[in-house]
Write a structure and sequence with these properties.
This protein is mainly alpha-helical. It contains 2 helices and 2 strands; from the N terminus they run ββαα. It has a two-stranded antiparallel sheet. It is extended. The protein starts with a strand and ends with a helix.
């Protein structure tokens, strides 16, 4: 996925070949549970609204959460 003029565009990577992503053994069962009942073409990781994760929004959400946690007394 890439963004073009603010829109998510899905396609093959630049090499136009499939890519595999290594998955540690300890994540196999939790991921299988998380993905149970989903279609093969559904997104695995989504925004809180179930949409495509966009870099800028994800970074903003994560950095805001981290700043909030670091400002909170332990």
């Amino acid at each position: 996925m890439t963004e073009v003029n603010g829109r998510a565009v899905f396609g093959t990577p630049k090499t136009h070949q499939r890519r595999s992503v290594p998955l540690p053994r300890f994540l196999v069962e939790p991921m299988a549970t998380q993905l149970a009942g989903r279609a093969r073409d559904e997104l695995v990781f989504t925004s809180p609204a179930g949409e495509v994760l966009r870099n800028n929004n994800f970074r903003r959400r994560v950095s805001t959460e981290l700043r909030s946690r670091s400002a909170s007394p332990a």
